[in-house]
Structures are given as structure tokens and as C-alpha cells.
Amino acid sequence: MFLPVALAVAAIGHAKADSVPAAPAALSYSIDLNRRTDDLFHVTLRVSGLGPGNAVYQFASTAPGTYQVMNIGRYVKTFEAFDARGRRVPAERLAVNQWRLSEPARVRTIRFAVSETWDSPLDRPIYKMCGTSIEADHVLINPHAVLGYPEGLQATPVRLRLAYPAAWTVGSALKRGPDGVFVADSYDQLVDSPILLGRLSRARLTVTGVPIDVYAYSRTDKIKASQLLGAMSGMLNAAGRFLGKLPIDRYTFLYHFGEENAGAWEHSFSSEYVLEEAEFSDSVGQGVTDIAAHEFFHIVTPLNIHSEIIEHFNFVTPVPSQHLWLYEGTTEWAAHVMQLRAGLKTPEAYLQTLIRKMQVDLRAFDSTYSLRELALTSYSDSGQAQYGNIYMRGALTAGLLDIRLLELSKGQRGLQDLVGDLTRRYGKRRAFPDSSLVDTLVAMTHPEIRDFFDRYVWESERLPVKDYYAKLGLTLIEDEHGLPVRFDLDPNPTDAQRILREAWLGRKPKASS
Ligand SMILES: [Zn+2]
What we know:
Radius of gyration: 24 Å
Strand content: 15-25%
Bound molecules: zinc ion
Number of strands: 23
Shape: globular
Helix content: 25-40%
CATH class of the domain at 25-196: Mainly Beta
CATH topology of the domain at 25-196: Immunoglobulin-like
Strand order of the largest sheet: 5-4-8-2-1-12-15-14
């Protein structure tokens, strides 16, 4: 869905008003996961103090970081409300994601049943890593795909009690009370934390003082959490060095290895992966590490650098932000370049990744779509068809921005430094205005950067990959159709090229006094 700016702004104001609770109601959920044969989550909500402003129970239309319309109400099979004596309080369906309670003040219990998304044959299915699954030996819960909230109570604390087999292991970044109940400060925090439970393996590592947990479900036990952690530990330490200090106090990786390669989804303190199971090998480990590096780097953006559209998330109506180039493009660039700069990837391997991204951009996507347009239309069908290019052209663009920044500062400050500055300037609780970020970036760097954004983010000029990498003494070789084949490293770069190449490899020149 595309929203013009005026509508988007109106929607933001609406979400802000919603997040102020009208009544001090507590939301206490329980889900019985011992009942698993009907592919339904049987949810009970105990609540009191609902007022007229809380009459509409809202399921999520989308969720942060997915850029996909989900309409979770489609999966809701039954919805009933009861008073203190167990008598029905009528509830009617208003819209795909909304039920209205006829007398909210009387309601003490709401019961609903929600289908797991993986086994629901619906048109426009939601991404598996954003969905839910109930099986004999494990359950995946992305809370936004099971639970909603009464209108006006998006910011109210939530308690979630899960009943499940005693032998199961539970992986989640959600905090738990002494009684084992999951607790969240708000709906936003709840849906920021997927839960994977069942027959899982687990492993732990500490990076710059931050505990990192890995939980893995592997359908036929081919892959263990300890193997994944072994493969990722170099990357995690490189991320610590790349960022100086990790902007988190804990982190949890949740892996599901089954029949399908669906992808991964980032959160503030965790990420969830749905990948195809295979015998573990070095190449499987590297593939997992590349995806994990991407998701892990999201702790920087959008989680610590984001616009107000993400800060005050609107679960009722999807509202796009134009800065997908930052959230996804820069993240994908960082996932690979931090491994290059740590020596975990050779320049040749890194450059080959760029070649693949250029080939996919040129062959599979519409070259007239700018990154901004891609972002603003991400909730529409036409935008969804181009969305995947944010991982290709978006990442390539971030790489060029890095080279331009290094060039303008004679190798002193690139995109890595700018990202660090932005993290310090904004952070988790301070959003940037969606409309003025580029002005801020120009003010923080060089006037020439505005022209870069005009051409390659706002517009869709063909990326000057050949010219920019030539500044590093790297020659892009193309075939007779103009498609990229490989980069050749000039063994005798000029002094200027050598300085930029060293900076690009993470070795900065000493600042002259
Ligand atoms: Zn991402």
C-alpha cells in the first residue's frame, strides 16, 4: 500500500495518541502449547478496567522491519469475550484486523484461536521467519502473529504465560519473571522478541562483555547451536570491533532448520532464521554467518538509527519510511564489509559478492525504480516485486557512499564512521525526522553528499560502480553486454588510490597534523 505524505503524517499522530493508555489495565495472556494437534494457538487474555477507548481489539496489519502487509486478523478463527461470571459479552468483527467489544468495561476474559501461519493456505502468505508454526517437537511464535492489543493499550505492559512440555528448551530475548512468565513493557517490546521452543540445542559466547545465545531447531538434528556459534564467532567479534561497542546488553539467535530457505528477521535483542537444513559444512557455516551478520548489524539500524515512523510504530495501517537505503542497504553493506575489514573475507571474495549483487540488480529488477521509490511502495504489489533489490542495489549504493565519503575526507572518515556518529546522535529512543535525514547527513559530512543522494537514492541513475572502484585502483571488467564479470586489483596503484584502498580495507591513514 502506498500512503501519500499527508496520510502518513495523520497516521503517525494517530499512533501516538493510541499509545497513551486510557485506563491502567494490565494485559495478561496465556497460551496452551500442550494442545498442538489442531495447528491453532488457543489464547486467553485476562483483563480489567477496559474503557470505551479500548473497545476495539486490534491485530497487527504489519510489523517493524518486514515491509510487508500481513493482516494477522486473517488467521484468527474464533474471538469471544466474557464477563467476570463467564457470560458472553458480544464482540463483532469491524475489519480484517479489528473486533469491537460491545461492553468493554464488563470484559474480564477474551479467548481467541489463531492459526499458525506456516500451515495456513492463504493467498499472500506472510514470510515464514515472521510467522508461526506448531509442530509435535517445536513451536515458533512471532508474537505479533498471535497476539494483538486493545486499542489505546499498545504501550501497556504485557505478561505472557506459555504452557509447554517440561522437556522443551525455550529460546527468546524476552525477559521472564520469577514465575517463568514472559514480561514486556509494551506490545512493541513483546512483538520485538520471537520465541522458539522445543527440541533445541543451545550455545553461548560473550563478545565485548555481551552474552550471545544461540538456539537451534534442526529437523533431523544435522545442525547444532555450537557449530553455528563456532562459524559465527569471528563475525561477532568483528562486529564488536566494527562498532567499537555493541549497543546491546544481550543477544539471542534463533535458528530453525527445516525444509525451506525463507530468510531472517531482525529485532532489538534477537533475530529469527528460517533456513533449509543441510549437513553442516564450512560453506553452510559461511552462508549462515553472512545472513547472521546482516541481522546482527540491524542492532545499529533501524534499531538504533531510525525515523519517527519506526519509533511510533503503526500496527493499524502500514506506513512506509523512505530510508530503506539505510535500514536494509547499509545493513547489507556492513554485513560484508565488516568481515572484509576484519580479515574474515578476502578482497576477492568481497568483490565477488559485489559482482553477484550487480548482476542480480541489472537482470532481475527494474532499473528505473529509485531506492526511495522502492521504500515508499514497499507495502504495494509493485513495490514488493522490487523490494528484494534493496539487498542488491541498496547494498551497492551504501558501498559507493562509503567510497565517496572516504574520498572526500582523504581516507579519514567513511560510512562506518558516519554510522557510529549517527548511533551516538540518535539511539534507540531518539528518532530522526523522516524528511530531513539527508540534510543532517550533508551537514555532518560534505556538501557533495547531497548530489550523491539526489542521483542514486532519490533518483535511479545507473550506479557509477566502475568509476568509484577505480578510485581504489580496482578495475571493473564487463562482458560485451555491459554485465559485470569481475574486479581486477591494480598491483601498482597511485598514492591516492593506495590511501583510499587501505582505508576501504579498514586501515586508515594517520591524520596529518
Ligand atoms: Zn535486513
